[in-house]
Design brief:
This protein is an alpha/beta fold. It contains 17 helices and 29 strands. It has an eight-stranded mixed sheet with strand order 2-15-9-12-8-3-4-5, sandwiched between helices. Helix 5 crosses helix 10.
């Protein structure tokens, strides 16, 4: 473009800096002015005034130019295109008829489940794990990163360690030399703290070279329907999150997707930051994906009609079919307008025909890499402006483009298979995202609390399900209410990944026995066997064994165990008490649990009373 604009009065301040800048910076500013972004630079003060603020603005623009495919002007172009669609009020589902998705039901622990777990376990050496971990724990009243929050409070195992332990356990089961790649997507807020946590904990036993941290950047906010980038203060470029769909862009731009595929990785499992049950389902999920030949598979749970969880549906329009997550507030109107005048209704079991999305994905690498290279990883962006006028021209506040990782199937061809595996909810999913007061209010309103206390209770519930599958008698404690949040506190069962990754392993290692009330059982080690173990009341038993330590445990154990001590109202506000304790509303105190640690290989026996 001609440079005559630079001589205008409005750009005199900009011109005073011009010769000091690199050729690349001058070229970027020129392109932006040509893309109707001249307002970013109009009325600048002359060189020497507010130079530091101007530099911050330019550095932000250069960051977007570097990190977003096709740069800042590409972002502006995409904004204009999508804003035109939003302004027209187009229905994204116009002409589509919802059907049940292609699905495999693995909610029951039956022969099908065992077969899927066995098939999936054979894939451990050809899979990678992608953790979307861009969130801080502010909503939980935690000043750190969410993955550092303990999933349980008896041992205090952080989510990040739990995930690393699962990866290590999968590697052990595949033999020497197996390394499961672990990709962690962080944000500017969580980058430094995530890396620090990994280093401080020696990568939780993983090898540093198998852990890949990729950082998600913010994108500019858009001020109007013409795609003009929004300013706050005079030299402040407003920036907002782009959405977790950035994980696809980062896997492409970093070269990781192509590299891992070249190294023999055939599937990636995408997980969220605070879901302690997710690896319970991973072996069977891999098995389903392999047997069905799914290029993209969502893990799902049964949902109640109207529940505030996105529903997975196959949307059909002529020869076109897309299996996608449809937000709950869009699903009911879509059903009423097409196949169900009554909307999202329950089946005979009380569940919707459309299972609930939990944003855990299994993606086949062959199709994935091809799509990433074709799209540069920019997946199905959308914009959702809030208009302040009937003509839909003025925004109530600046908006931005967004992208969701589960929308990847929008880019799949008809030949590529997309499906759903439906699991029991407590077995595979429990969110941890609300502070005590907010969680209590949500539960009173009929919704899930999704708090640290309920996530911990759900984690123990899944452990109890494993013991039941092995034939142990499990008698659950009564429901309690702590700080206004109701949950079942026990028995507290932690079967570490080292002990079992599959139900068949639990059945091999546990024979009979009883556990009840708020008893606690923790097993950490590959070769621990339980024979008729009994834990009642509040009794606690912890067995930790290094590789090569074979431990046989039998008999009844009676002790004071671990006590759940509820915090007083004043303690909830006491900053001297750890945030991870206050976010639960209680602390766990060891009153004399039986703890056995075997730190050398060998054969050992642990006997309780009446052995």
């Amino acid at each position: 473009m001609q440079m005559d604009w630079l001589d205008g009065v409005a750009f005199s301040g900009l011109k005073s800096h011009w010769l000091d800048w690199s050729e690349g910076r001058r070229a970027l500013v020129t392109r932006l002015v040509g893309a109707n972004q001249g307002h970013l630079f109009e009325g600048w003060e002359l060189k020497g005034a507010s130079d530091a603020l101007k530099e911050v603005l330019l550095v932000k623009l250069e960051g977007v130019e570097r990190n977003y495919p096709r740069g800042v002007c590409g972002y502006v172009e995409n904004s204009r295109r999508l804003l035109a669609v939003a302004r027209g009020g187009e229905n994204p589902f116009e002409g589509f008829v919802p059907e049940q998705p292609d699905r495999v039901d693995v909610t029951a622990f039956d022969g099908l489940y065992d077969r899927m777990e066995a098939l999936g376990a054979e894939q451990f050496d050809r899979m990678g794990v992608v953790l979307v971990a861009g969130g801080l724990g502010e909503r939980l009243g935690f000043g750190g990163i969410k993955v550092d929050i303990p999933v349980e409070s008896v041992r205090g195992t952080p989510y990040l360690k739990l995930y690393a332990d699962a990866i290590l356990a999968m590697e052990v089961r595949m033999g020497a030399g197996c390394r499961v790649p672990f990709v962690i997507m962080v944000s500017a807020d969580t980058d430094e703290k995530t890396r620090a946590s990994l280093v401080a904990n020696e990568y939780f036993g993983l090898v540093a070279s198998q852990v890949h941290v990729v950082r998600q950047e913010l994108v500019p906010a858009v001020a109007d329907h013409e795609g003009r980038l929004a300013l706050g203060a005079r030299y402040e470029l407003l920036m907002k999150p782009h959405g977790h769909g950035d994980v696809h862009m980062l896997l492409h731009s970093s070269g990781l997707a192509r590299r891992l595929f070249g190294e023999g990785i055939r599937r990636l499992v995408f997980i969220q930051d605070t879901n302690g049950q997710v690896f319970n389902a991973v072996p069977a999920a891999l098995g389903v994906a392999v047997e069905q030949g799914y290029d993209f598979m969502s893990l799902a749970v049964n949902r109640i009609p109207g529940e505030a969880v996105g529903g997975l549906a196959k949307l059909v329009r002529g020869a076109e079919a897309l299996t996608l997550n449809v937000e709950y507030n869009q699903l009911d109107p879509l059903l009423r307008a097409t196949v169900s005048p009554e909307g999202d209704v329950a089946n005979a079991e009380g569940f919707s025909m459309f299972p609930g999305n939990i944003n855990v994905l299994v993606i086949g690498m062959e199709a994935y890499v091809a799509i990433l290279e074709e799209t540069e990883g920019v997946v199905a962006e959308f914009v959702n402006p809030k208009f302040a006028d009937e003509e839909r021209r003025v925004f109530k506040k600046p908006t931005r483009l967004e992208t969701m990782m589960q929308d990847l199937p929008k880019l799949f061809s008809p030949e590529q298979r997309v499906g759903v595996a439906v699991f029991d909810r407590s077995w595979c999913f429990s969110a941890n995202k609300n502070r005590v007061a907010d969680a209590a209010a949500r539960q009173r309103g009929g919704g899930p609390a999704e708090s640290a206390a309920t996530a911990e209770a759900d984690f123990y519930h899944a452990g109890r399900a494993r013991l039941r599958s092995a034939g142990m008698v499990v008698e659950e404690a009564d429901v309690v209410a702590v700080q206004g949040i109701s949950f079942v506190p026990g028995p507290r069962v932690v079967l570490c990944p080292s002990f079992a990754m599959r139900l068949s392993e639990v059945r091999e290692k546990v024979r009979g026995g009883v556990i009840s009330g708020e008893a606690t059982l923790i097993l950490d080690g590959a070769d621990i066997r339980l024979e008729g173990v009994e834990l009642r009341g509040r009794s606690g038993l912890v067995i930790e064994a290094v590789p090569g330590a074979c431990v046989r445990v039998r008999g009844r154990f009676e002790n004071e165990g671990f006590e759940r001590v509820v915090l007083g109202a004043d303690e909830l506000e006491d900053v001297a008490i750890a945030e991870t304790v206050r976010m639960r509303g209680y602390r766990m105190v060891d009153r004399g649990a039986a703890v056995f640690r075997f730190e050398e290989p060998g054969v050992y026996e642990v006997c309780g009373e009446l052995a």
